[in-house]
Each structure stands twice: as C-alpha cells, then as structure tokens.
Amino acid sequence: MSTATALVLEAPGRLVAHEIEVPEPLPGEALLRVEACGLCGTDHEMFTGAMPAALPLVPGHEVIGTIEAATPEFLSVRSLAEGDRVALEVFQRCGDCGPCRSGAYPLCRRHGLRDSYGNSPLSSGAGLWGGYATHVVLTTDAVVHRVPAGLDPVHATLFNPLGAGIRWGVTLPGVREGDVVAVLGPGLRGLGAVAAASAAKAGFILLTGAGGRDADRLELGRLLGATEAVDVTQADPRALLKERVGGLADVVVDVTAAAPAAFVQALDLVRPGGTVVVAGTRGAHPLREFNPDRIVLKELRLLGARGVDGAAYSAALDLLAADQRLRTLPRRTVGLDPEALSELLTTMAGGDAPPLHAVVVP
Ligand SMILES: [Zn+2]
Ligand SMILES: [Zn+2]
C-alpha cells in the first residue's frame, strides 16, 4: 500500500500536509497522478472561510494529471490508456438521470456540489478528492478529457477559465464571424472570453477594465486578440465603439467581479436586439438604483452564465494546444508546501498584486 501526500484544509486558514493511504482502484475506478492544479476564486474563498465547505477536505478542482493505475472498465468506456494525460472536471456524472441524459450533468440528481472534486470531505472514500495532492481517486462517474499531445500540464490547467471564456463569450451568446463583442472585466475568464471571441473570428473585440491595477491585464487582452482594451475610468467605451464600429456591440459579456455598475454599462454598450451575458457576480454589492426599462426598450436578450460544459472544456484544451499566446500569461506556481500555498491564497483573497494565474505543482 503506497501513500499520497495531500494538503488538507482542516479549518479556515489552516492547511496541513497529510500522508493518506492510496487504495487499489475499485472496479470502474482509476488513480490519477496530479501534475498541476489551477487555483481560482473558489480556492481562496474556501481557504479564508468566505465560502463554507465540509472541512476537513483536500481542496483543488482544476486538476491535470496522468492516469497512473486504472481498471479496464474505467479505461474502456473512456477510450483511454494508463499514462494518458487528462483534465478532470469538477462534477461527477451518473449518466442515467434526466439531467445527465439531456447533457446537463452539473445538475445530475445522484451527484452534486457536495461530492464534486475539490469539495468532498476527507471522510468520504479514500479522501483523495482534491488537486492539492500527489494523487486523486477517479470514480466510476468521474468526467475526464484527454489533454492534447505537447500541451504542458501547467498550461493545460487553463482549460477551466478558458472553457468558461468559450462558453460565456462565444457558445452561449452565439457569437458569429464579424460580430462586435465587448468583454467587461480583464480577469482570467475575461481574457479567456477575448481569446475565444478572437478564435471565433469576431470582427471587433473591446475589452474593458477599471483603474491602473488592470493596466497589465488590458495589455494582455490586446495580445490575446482584443482590438481595443480600455480603462473605463479614463475613457468612454460607448463613445469608442461608436467611433470605431459606428454603433454598439452585438454581444456584451460581463465577467466583472463585485462591480455592480458594470451591469448598467453592459446594457449601455449593447445594441438594440443584442445579447448580454451576465457571468460576473456582485457579491455583497447589489445594484441600488437600476431601471430595467432599458432591457425592454432595446429588446435585449439577457443570459445568466455560471458553469462550463464538457464541450467547452474540450474546445479549451484544443485552443490551448493551438494558440501559443495563451501560454504566455504571467503566473505563480507553488509546490505542495502548506506555508507557500497559504501565502499565495491569502494574496489572491485580497493582497496588493494577486497573480493572474496561480497553479499548484505537486
Ligand atoms: Zn475554479
Ligand atoms: Zn446524473
């Protein structure tokens, strides 16, 4: 019996290294050797306690790794072999229930957030549910995607934010070649939406940020395909659109965080009959004064977006393999070191210069 090293979040702010027994895979299961695990907002919210979780547990839900050991059942239904590099989805899929059959498996009736990867308690099964570890147990219902050859595991962790960018920025609103697309918020998901719109051959892509803090990210947006990238505290994006495209945006994607005013701006920037994708959450900053008449008068299509689906994850991995520009994003990596990772998560939760992309490399 071998052991895995895992960082267990025992209580908010308390990350401790544990040695955990690695079980032989049961029929239908496999063992993943973790190569890299991306970090996002959920990680620092779970770490600080801002988001409640069933502690103690091993966090980490943007996992890339190679299949170290597997039962034939696991491999045959997925057409995989031992040694293959895969990206692991957060949610399990039973494949049998109504939502699973319709493709909406994040709403699976047998599984859910409580038994998702990076969120399941240490007491469940072998306890190896998260990417802050050398190993993760892949269940019968785990959903994985093969990582294209030549794509580095650290870069491959972008499958998660880029998958969101593809679904929110292109698939959901139905962006077509030549469309004018405005992306509000230059975080990892906003930049992913820019890259996705660029790959979908949008005719004009505007990226907005707010304040000097976003300057570097706006510059990255230009590198990833934004036609214009502006700071809304310095320039009027509506005037800019009118000047450059002679009108407004066909599609506006709001991926801002805790910026209620951005929603109003999204309604301002979209053309009559256009589509607004609302993916940013306002948190504790609700919109106080808002007149919904603009939605009526412009006959807008408003789409809420929260999750990502398998098709978008798969497309993200292909785009990462094809587009070298996405690999140049600045990032910080840490090993399985409780102190270094705690420091990184604290910085992400509210430090001065949070890294754009952060990755745990066991
Ligand atoms: Zn995440
Ligand atoms: Zn199901």
Please tell me about this protein's structure:
This protein has helices at residues 41-48, 72-78, 98-101, 153-156, 159-171, 188-199, 215-223, 237-245, 260-269, 293-297, 310-322, 338-350, and strands spanning 2-11, 14-22, 30-39, 62-70, 85-88, 135-138, 144-146, 180-184, 204-209, 228-231, 249-254, 270-278, 301-304, 331-334, 357-360. With 362 residues, it is α/β, with parallel strands linked by helices. The protein folds into two domains: 2-158 and 329-360, Medium-chain alcohol dehydrogenases, catalytic domain (Quinone Oxidoreductase, Chain A, domain 1, Alpha-Beta Complex), CATH 3.90.180.10; 163-304, NAD(P)-binding Rossmann-like Domain (Rossmann fold). The chain starts with a strand and ends with a strand. Residues 40, 42, 61-62, 160 line the site of one zinc ion. One zinc ion binds at residues 93-94, 96-97, 99-100, 105, 108-110.
